[in-house]
Amino acid sequence: MSFYVSPALGLLLLSVAVQLYYLAYYFLPFARRAPEPTEGPTPEPVSVLVCAHNELENLRRLLPLILQQDYPAGFEIILVDDRSEDDTFLYVQQLTQYYPHVRMVTVKNTPDGLSPKKYALTLGIKTARYPRMLFTDADCIPATNQWLNYMQRGFGRPADMVVGYSAYAPEPGFLNKLIRFETFLTGAQYLSFAWRGFPYMGVGRNLAYTRQVFHSTKGFASHIRSLGGDDDLLVQDAVAQGARVAVVAEPGAHTLSEPVQTWGAWWRQKRRHLSAGRRYKLSDRLRVGIFMGANLVFYGTAIGLLFSPPNWVYLAIVWLIRTGCLSAVYARLGRRLDDRLPLAWLPILDAVYFFYYLALGISLFLYRTLRWK
């Protein structure tokens, strides 16, 4: 009895094979790697930079937690007040009276055509006293008082850049689960790829690099007029200049952010993030694009096979195998990153996310105008 594989079923099998390769080569080994050592090289002082635009309430929550970091080597906090119209200036001025290692840089205006955040960060970096710098956003908080300690250990690998993980706080509702899943999947990609020797991005909510790296890339010069990319495009430029990148993914090194509350706000946020991807080098675009494309092909082909009754049994078998492997690896990654989503929700979130991702891609192709706050 002959066995005939239709072109659609063959495409489905190929897409699943590609996904299983990524799971087996990148995600699962990264999830199973040994914990970071508790002892590291002799720590050095660090400059912690936060750029804020009308973020007073967030700063009231963040800055005390940074001040409470257990880091005997010493650190300074540089708050870049980027054109704020609230009482950020008064609040930080009060802190500087009690904490001499808190400093403020005030940005009154941004030159025409330049990215406001990149311009503000550049001014902050120029005033940093220490060669090692750690960056986070005003709407984040460190997960523990060991955040500084963990992140600086990455420099001792040795490395010139350290990429960390930044999760979103769990809240009720499907949107929150989807945001957390997207963040988790993005983190799984850039952390595991970097661990395998293919660093391509980081997130500004939890990123560290040296002053020498910033100078080697001429700062943000290659993309200073692009709104996004103060993190991932800088990593792209730094790697091109030979920078060594370390991954620090211990839960104690994470930062935690408050997610947006509406679908529209998340849509705008993701459009801004994805727009930077066009500037990635070709090998990185291919590595990320093949994984994302394989998932999209899987869902598109599976929907088509629903209208082919002779293939239903094969479709069901392939779907179960893929779902089982994917859920098992994602659950293991969730434990490794201490960012767990309900196991039963993973197949649903995976499907919804990739259709949402496809819609975002079409939106960016048709309408490329982006805005910054």
From TrEMBL:
InterPro entries assigned to the protein according to its UniProt record, in alphabetical order: Glyco_trans_2-like (IPR001173), Nucleotide-diphossugar_trans (IPR029044)
Annotated ranges, domain Glycosyltransferase 2-like: 47-181
Cross-referenced Pfam families: Glycos_transf_2
Keywords: Glycosyltransferase, Membrane, Transferase, Transmembrane, Transmembrane helix
Family stated for the protein in its record: Belongs to the glycosyltransferase 2 family.
Biological source species: Hymenobacter taeanensis
Transmembrane portions of the chain: 6-28, 288-307, 313-331, 343-367
Top-level taxon of origin: Bacteria
Protein name, UniProt field: Glycosyltransferase
GO terms for MF: glycosyltransferase activity
Organism classification: Bacteria, Pseudomonadati, Bacteroidota, Cytophagia, Cytophagales
Gene3D superfamilies in UniProt: Spore Coat Polysaccharide Biosynthesis Protein SpsA, Chain A
Keyword Transmembrane helix annotated: yes
Coiled-coil positions: none
The keyword Iron-sulfur is assigned to this record: no
